[in-house]
Amino acid sequence: MLDNISKDARGNVYAAMCPCRDLLDVLANKWSTLVIGALESGPQRFGQLKVRLQGVSPKVLSQTLKRLEGRNLLTRTVYAEVPARVEYELTALGHGASRPLKDLRDWVETNVTRAEPRP
Amino acid sequence: MLDNISKDARGNVYAAMCPCRDLLDVLANKWSTLVIGALESGPQRFGQLKVRLQGVSPKVLSQTLKRLEGRNLLTRTVYAEVPARVEYELTALGHGASRPLKDLRDWVETNVTRAEPRP
DNA sequence: CAGTATCCAAAAGGATACTG
DNA sequence: CAGTATCCTTTTGGATACTG
Questions:
Q1: To probe the interface with A, which of B3, B22, B24 has the most A CB atoms within 10 Å?
Q2: Closest partner residue to B27 among A13, A99, A108, by Cβ?
Q3: How far apart are CA A7 and CA A94, in angstroms?
Q4: I need a labelling partner for A110 at 20 to 30 A (CA). Which of A1, A2, A8, A94 fits?
Q5: Cβ of A99 less than 7 A from strand D
Q6: Which domain holds residue B73?
Q7: Which nucleotide is nearest to B32 (CA to C1')?
Q8: What does the pLDDT read at residue A8?
Q9: Does residue B118 lie within any of the structural domains?
Q10: What is the CATH number of the domain that holds A88?
Q11: pTM, to two decimals
Q12: Which of A10, A35, A13 is nearest to A24 (CA)?
């Protein structure tokens, strides 16, 4: 029988100590949201991503990719060519995460005029 | 007739200069995601939110609420009681934004064990 | 109760320049 | 091409302490 600690191993993002807080932090930020969206339609190279994510620096893009790779959300593949070609691709897990993120991007693009800042 | 600049006024989150980049930044972060989720079921007071969002400091909670209020995503209402009662409530716009965010929270809670960090 | 004010440490991010 | 290294500025966030 299943032990009573892990049960179905579902997390609670409202619990400070739950590991899913960290996962939420990895996904719920601007650059991760944009990277995952850019990879939805298929593998992309570093340079392609840098162009699509207008304004991102190579340092930040690299950091973001590493964090997502470390969570099994995407894979990094090096092809033995000259010069080397490197492709990033969403894993099955990454594709799952991409759905709510796509909905969020779509909502933002549609409703931006209704959420104008009034400081 | 409509002017040809605003058209349907849909934004593009991949464009660096698009105002929706800022809106994405407001929504796509850990604390906003949790605040909006906590308000989904109805109005909440500051203290209640502070308890639900385990580990958040009053400063950060206050900042997050102000940013969301400034985007018309929630309202702040002060009731003339002693001591004063203050309630935060999602606007219609905020409820719209809360859907993809809820899906994201749910996905995170369900898949946290499959996205364990491998540094 | 509902915040604000302070102080500080840590992380994020931008700009380049440089390398295998 | 695909990053890494460096430098520096800005933001974020935690911890308290304090106030109307």
A1: B24
A2: A108
A3: 24
A4: A94
A5: no
A6: 10-111
A7: D12
A8: 61
A9: no
A10: 1.10.10.10
A11: 0.93
A12: A13
pLDDT > 90: percent of chain A: 85
User: Per the domain annotation, does A55 fall within a domain?
Assistant: yes
The enclosing H or E element of A101 equals helix A92-111
pLDDT tens digits along A79-107 = 999 889 999 999 999 999 999 999 999 99
* Chain B interface includes A85 (CB < 8 A): no
Number of separate domains in chain A = 1
Task: Record the tokens describing residue A8, joined without a space.
Answer: 């179905």
Rounded to a whole number of angstroms, the CA Rg of chain A reads 17
C-beta atoms of B70 and A119 within 8 A: yes
- Per-residue HEC secondary structure of chain B comes to CCCCCCCCCCCCCCCCCCCHHHHHHHHCCHHHHHHHHHHCCCCEEHHHHHHHCCCCCHHHHHHHHHHHHHCCCEEEEEECCCCCEEEEEECHHHHHHHHHHHHHHHHHHHHHHHHCCCC
| E runs forming strands in chain A | 44-45, 74-79, 85-90
Instruction: Check if the beta carbon of residue A112 is closer than 8 Å to that of residue B23.
Output: yes
The verdict on residue B5 lying in a domain is no
Structural domain contains residue B4? no
Distance CA(B113)–CA(B117), nearest Å, equals 9
Q: What is the pLDDT of residue A82?
A: 84
